[in-house]
Fold this protein.
Amino acid sequence: MSGTVTNGLTALMASQRALQTTSNNIANANTPGYVRQRVDFVELPGTPNGRFTIGAGVAISDITRVYDQYLTENLRSSASLEQRSVTYGSFTSRLDSILGNPDTGITTAIQRFFDQVEAVGRDPTSITQRQQLLLEGGNLASRFQQLQTQLDGLGNEIDGRLQNAASTVNNLADQIARVNEQISAAGASSAPSLLDQRDQLLKALGSQIDISTVNQKDGSVSVFVGSGQSLVLGGHAAKLTTIPDSLDGSRLQLAIDSGNSVQDISSRISGGVIGGLLAFRNDVLDTSRQSLGQLAAGLAAGFNAQHVQGVDLNGDLGGDFFGSTTPLVSAATTNSGSATVSASITDASGLAGRDYIARFDGTAWSVMDRRTGASVAATGAGTPASPLQFEGLSVSASAGLAAGDRFLIRPVAQATSDLRVILNSPDQIAAAAPLGSSASSSNLSQAAISRPVVADFDDPKLLTPAQIVFDSPTSYLVFTGSGADIIGPLPYSSGDDISFAGWTAQVSGTPQTGDRFFVSGAAPGSGDNTNVLALATVANQGFFTGGTQSLQNLGAGIVASVGSAANRANNDIKVQEALRQQAEIDLENVSGVNLDEEAANMLRYQQSYLAASKVISVADGLFQNLLQIVGR
Amino acid sequence: MRIGSNVFQLQWLASIRRQQQELAENQAQVSSGKRINTAADDPAGAAQSILLQQGLDRLKNHSTNAETARRRLGLEEGSLAQATDALNRVRELALQAASGTQTAESRSAIAAEATELLHGLVNTANSQDGEGRYLFAGNQVQSRPFIQSGGVQYVGDNGTRNQRIADAQTVQEGDAGSTVFMQIPEGNGSYTVAANVANQGSANWSSATATSGTAFVPGDYTLTFTAPDTWEARSGGTLLASGSYAPGESISFQGATVEFQGTPAAGDSFTVATAGFKDVFSTVRDFIATLSTVTNSANSRADFQNKINSDLQNMDQALQHISNVRSQVGARLATIDQQLENNADVQVELSGSLSSIRDLDYASAISKLEQQLNSLQVAQKAYARTQSLSLFDVL
């Protein structure tokens, strides 16, 4: 009899606990990270009684967290990748809207400048048109600088966000360490809510940075970042911090401070907000800045190279139109030597739009691409006498090198700020071809002279007026003034090259003895537009990569590569979002609360509670009956 | 399979967000009218549209260049026509003066008209384009190229300017004054004939041509009539040829054939020399000087005839030369017109390609928009229905 009461009581108790658990599940149905709990019943062993053993009721063996470690980790890592792609994508889209608008981008600015070059070609002596060209040159330069400022702004923002993310990570790591402590102190009886909380913290941490975790025997979780650096060990958390790049003090890198050492782990991080920031800076922003610099350097060099081949309105050989740029070299803070390294651009068309790390191993130099680490072929010993030469650059080091010293070489880092018009007056625009030629009006024959072509712009007598005199129909002399620098008599037949003082011309026809031809620098005020016609094609002619890629192609290429990065990033966001959603759904299907299920459980436990009460009531009835019988 | 209650909401939210994003993208395209708003919308298309846009800009520049060249060549053509008219009038005057009926008075009237024509010719040679640049100054476009002080000096240069009218085509947009007016071959183009001023007879040359089948051998030759009916040709004392002569006969040597009229005196000589250049102004001035020749004897009439023959020869050379320049100008104008037409065709083509890459197909974009709005509505209704289902409602 008392067994029946006891059984009823255990059932009553168990149902009550089960109802409580169900109500907790219902209460937390919308709590993020809540893992539903399930009541496990177990029958109590009865005491053997002769031939039978009658059960002793029910007990609750356990309240299980319906938890799946694999699915939880899957959600954490897919959320980490999603955050990376969202961060990467939002920055790339911003860059795309800065550089990628086909109507307002850099290519339009270049085209406007060259439109004005054409206008000068139509009226080469017009000061108004020339003045306008200087203005358009200035506009082009400031367009480049605006873009550079915007790109640099993105770079600074990344530094700021890295700092924020590092402090968020530190905060989360501290909390995880504290929860670890509580869990290991409580041992096996630790509350499920603590475990839920820790999983939530780990997920939030994973959204900032990719982590790996290891469960320890004491119930704590160890968290590792980078290439295995421990961020949380039991109750202890290390600190993430930002440090200046050892090669380039202008940018921050992410490092871990384990108490006794600070280690740069930037290159090891691929996930979370931090992974997205670093990947964007490395893959997209740096490349865009380098390409923009390459374009600016190429534009200045290409335009200048043609401009110095003309003469201006004063009859002087043209100077540089745009300022030229010098590479930026910085020594690693870890260098033990005292040497400084200087670099210069020897051939702008050889520039490849990338930065380099040059390393001295004690005897020789090796050069590699800063971003990819790919080795770059270089010649020379790296001394001033035999500079290191690669990709349009010439690099030399002073004395004091130590083995292992590294230098960062950024060829075009200053190219956009160096791009400015350095001609100060419109008459200095070299529109005309440098030399003109004519036949003497007293010539006996009708022989004609071609326009001289310049072979050597450095010849000091290039622009000095020269005369070709035929001392017979088949031989000639060339001299300046009234007989200086004389060469000849040289044999002549019609169409032969006549070369003198850096130029070459041809006389065609049959000259008579005494016939004279004059070659002289273009007179001041020349309305010739030969050099402008050549300048007008600078942007469209092959320039980079061995003369196959024009400046305008590079400009369009920058737009396209940023565009395709943004396009890929947008697609990647969609993919990662879908994967994270699926992981969330998978987890939710196992660990999430289903209210219908809970409703059914509630009914079930209610009924079993009612039934258990009835058992007690029946047992009580039996007992009362027995008392009445006995009491008679 | 067990489904968490929140899964419905998660899935619905994801789907709504995706649809709203697509809707926003489509709306941005519809409102701008462009399929490519930033390069991310279609990276390859964006690069292509940039290059097409540049092609269009270049084409526009080339067409503007061509119009500029056409305007200047048109002005040049007008000036050359004026010069031709003036020269033709001078030639008429020369023919008029050559006739035997002229008196000293009538010749001086002719000289007065020729002087006016010379001034006009100089002014024509100093023509300017609408922007104040001299057309015939070579590249010295800012200074007056022809200066008249006695003779006419050319102070320009012999440069010419080209304009680019297509990627691989330039056209010369003018001719230097030196080429047009100064460097005109004299005589018959290969040699000149001039009488010795001391000649006593009445012989004068009436035509000077190349010997058929033989080219003129360049050089300076002296043709001397050793007697009224014999001649010899020498170069620097060396005897090259000799023969007999009767009035109206031609004398040929070294590739030159010169016909003479009248009777020379023994010892009369003529110089036959390789032709150089004679500018058109000197030709007219020579003619004016010829008009003042006194013709009161057979000998002086022969002198006048010799001079006027040379003048007419030089005028013909000048007319021929300017006509050649005019036909070159005409050819350039034709080239420009042809190229402008080509440019217009290419422009239509490029604009079409650009539009097909960059611009939006409105019809399909709008129908897509409708579709997106519909499916968004359906998703909203479906969610409302699923959320209203709960076992708790029936408890």
Remarks:
- Residues 127-186 of chain A form the longest helix (60 residues).
- Chain A has eleven helices and 30 strands.
